[in-house]
Structures are given as structure tokens and as C-alpha cells.
Specification:
By secondary structure, the protein is of the alpha+beta class. It is about 45% helix and about 30% strand. It contains 4 helices and 4 strands, in the order αααββββα. The radius of gyration is 19 Å and the shape is globular. The protein has one domain: Nuclear Transport Factor 2, Chain: A (Roll). The termini are far apart.
Length: about 150
């Protein structure tokens, strides 16, 4: 009986430890990725392809890809900030070097000046101790899309 109690206590300690490690990884993603993501979206809002490309993983997005994304001004007009709401870090090995190493996935909200929020999903890779954007998806409301697309 004594050993069963110790076993249960051990499981609780492991469970709490795992939650703590998961929270630490999320906080790392949130703290480290938010400024890079903010700068990347600001570059897209300004249609500054060169600045956006410097924040992307080399070879992950071409200048044309970033240009097409920046041309979707309705996604970035009035950008105020981002909030990372969930995220995880993983170590990956892949035959494509862009997808090997320390990678992060995050989701959250894009906040606009005076007009609500959208959502995002981003993939990033740590390159020389700096996070770089692998891919990004931004979703906005149909109302925002219709209003800004017709202006």
C-alpha cells in the first residue's frame, strides 16, 4: 500500500512537471515570437518586401510570395498588434533543411486599430538564435474583407 501511494505521488509530480514544461514552452514562443511576428506584419502592411524577407526563413517564401501577401492590404491595413494565444516548440529532422531544427507553431489574434480582430496561424524556425517566419495564415471577418476589398 505504501508503494502504491508513492507511485501515485510520483505520477502527480510528473504530471505537474509536464504541465510546467508545456507552459514554459508556450511562454517562450509567446515572448520570443511576438516581436518577430509584429515586425513581419508591419513590413507587410508597409509593403516592404525586403524587410519581410529578412524576417523569413531563407527559401521558405519567395519575394513573389511575400509580394502577393503584402498586396492583400485588407489583411494588414490598420494593424495594431498580435497576441499569441497558443504555441509549441519542437525539434524536427527533415530532408528539406527549411523544416529541420527548432520549429515553433503558434496561433492567436491580430488586432486592428479601431476595428476588431482577425486570427493567425504561423510557423517559425529558429535560425542563429533568432526566430524567422516559415509560413503565415491570417483570417479576417467577411465584413472587413468586403469593406476593405472595395475601397
Amino acid at each position: 500500500m505504501k508503494w502504491a501511494g508513492l507511485g501515485c505521488l510520483g505520477m502527480v509530480v510528473l504530471f505537474v512537471g509536464a504541465i510546467g514544461l508545456g507552459f514554459k514552452a508556450f511562454e517562450t514562443v509567446k515572448v520570443e515570437l511576438t516581436p518577430v511576428l509584429t515586425e513581419f506584419i508591419q513590413a507587410l502592411e508597409a509593403e516592404d518586401i525586403e524587410a519581410a524577407q529578412k524576417l523569413a526563413v531563407e527559401g521558405a517564401m519567395s519575394d513573389e510570395d511575400i509580394g502577393r501577401l503584402a498586396a492583400m492590404t485588407y489583411l494588414f491595413e490598420g494593424f495594431a498588434s498580435v497576441t499569441v494565444e497558443s504555441g509549441k516548440i519542437s525539434k524536427n529532422v527533415n530532408t528539406d533543411e527549411r523544416f529541420s531544427g527548432t520549429l515553433a507553431e503558434a496561433t492567436g489574434k491580430v488586432h486592428y486599430q479601431n476595428e476588431g480582430t482577425g486570427t493567425f496561424k504561423v510557423g517559425a524556425k529558429k535560425v542563429d538564435d533568432q526566430w524567422r517566419i516559415l509560413n503565415i495564415s491570417v483570417n479576417i471577418s467577411a465584413e472587413r474583407y468586403d469593406r476593405l476589398k472595395t475601397e
